[in-house]
Every structure is written in C-alpha cells, then in structure tokens.
Design brief:
The structure is a single chain. The protein has 2 helices and no strands. It is mainly alpha-helical and 50 residues long. It has a domain of 26 residues. The protein is elongated.
Length: 50
C-alpha cells in the first residue's frame, strides 16, 4: 500500500507518514498477536511484506 502511493508521486512526506502509521499499526497488531500466538505473527508479517 505504502509502496504504491509513494510510487504514484506522493513524495517522501506522504510515504513517511504512511510508513509511520503502518509501523504504529503493525506494532500494535504484533503486540496483540504475540500475546495470542507467535506462529500467527510470523504468518501475518510474511504475508504483509511484499
């Protein structure tokens, strides 16, 4: 998602904002998943990364 928007010409500003938001969301999600099941975290992380 962030890659597409950045490639479109959104600029580093937009890309950074998206990346920061994505990282914050991923961090929160990872924290929840870690509490639930480590295996799920690995699957989700590998699936999200292109």
């Amino acid at each position: 998602m962030s890659t597409e928007l950045t490639t479109r010409g959104g600029g580093r500003r937009m890309g950074t904002d998206i990346s920061t938001a994505a990282k914050a969301a991923s961090k929160n999600l990872l924290a929840r998943m870690l509490s639930a099941d480590e295996d799920i975290v690995v699957v989700q992380a590998s699936a999200r990364r292109p």
